[in-house]
Amino acid sequence: MSLRKILLILSCSLFAGLTHAQATFVVVAANMKDAFSEIQNQFQKENKGELKVIYGSSGNFASQIMNGAPFHLFISADEQYPLELFKKGKTINEGTVYAIGKLALITNKGKGIALDGSRGKMADAIKKANKIALAKPELAPYGRASVEYLKANNLWELANSKIVYADNIAMAAMFVTTGSADIGFTALSIAKSSALARQISSVELNDGYQPIKQRMVLIKNPTPDAIRLYEFMQAPKAKEILMAHGYQIAQ
């Protein structure tokens, strides 16, 4: 092989490596999937950089970041994980609260279980259910809030033996839509999803748990696109999308 061809191959390899290095890795709490997809679409109308978006549980992402995962922006479902990462020196600062989420109880329409916000109806729904879907509280902030809600309303003992745990809040909703669970606790943003509307009934839960303040934070050495996206998440258009998906905006 000629020297010229070798140099050409090396140049192409270097260019590919630099291109890959510029990709921005964004990890996003599962409850944010629908809202963030819209936000990403709006953001990328003017920012053409490559975004690699991964959805999952905030607890798993925090653990991966602690172990050196090469993420650039962490959009969490709570405050605890980003603030812990900041204390451990993994982020550039404490980040900011971008939204406040709410819980919802959902049921598969085919199960014939009536829902409303009263404790009596909630107890009836739990009694009728064979399985109750819940995100793992040690991994998912909405799972912790669900347990908090059940305990605050003296429903934990009634529900505990029926609970099936999912790794994240989106999977908990999937258990209900597929019929694996009769009712389940999920994020209001997921309950409002048009993809679920035909399959589920839902009720918004407004009290019995601490406000779910969702914080985002830039990991050390963020890409320019990560910084721009972090800023865009605080812009009026992103806030409008978040509110349309059932979130409140922190003042």
List the helices and strands and how they pair.
Blueprint: H1 3-21, E1 24-29, H2 33-43, E2 51-56, H3 58-66, E3 73-75, H4 80-87, E4 96-101, E5 103-108, H5 119-128, E6 132-135, H6 141-152, H7 156-159, E7 163-166, H8 169-177, E8 183-187, H9 188-191, H10 194-197, E9 200-205, E10 212-218, H11 224-232, H12 236-244
Parallel strand pairs: 1-2, 1-3, 6-7, 6-8
Antiparallel strand pairs: 3-10, 4-10, 5-8, 5-9
Helix pairs in contact: 2-12
Describe the structure.
It is a single chain. With 251 residues, the chain is of the alpha/beta class. The protein has helices spanning 3-21, 33-43, 58-66, 80-87, 119-128, 141-152, 156-159, 169-177, 188-191, 194-197, 224-232, 236-244, and strands spanning 24-29, 51-56, 73-75, 96-101, 103-108, 132-135, 163-166, 183-187, 200-205, 212-218. A five-stranded mixed beta sheet has the order 2-1-3-10-4. The chain has a five-stranded mixed beta sheet with strand order 7-6-8-5-9, sandwiched between helices. The longest helix is centred in the first third of the chain and has 19 residues, at 3-21.
Summarize the entry for a quick read.
The chain has 251 residues and is of the alpha/beta class. It has helices at 3-21, 33-43, 58-66, 80-87, 119-128, 141-152, 156-159, 169-177, 188-191, 194-197, 224-232, 236-244, and strands spanning 24-29, 51-56, 73-75, 96-101, 103-108, 132-135, 163-166, 183-187, 200-205, 212-218.
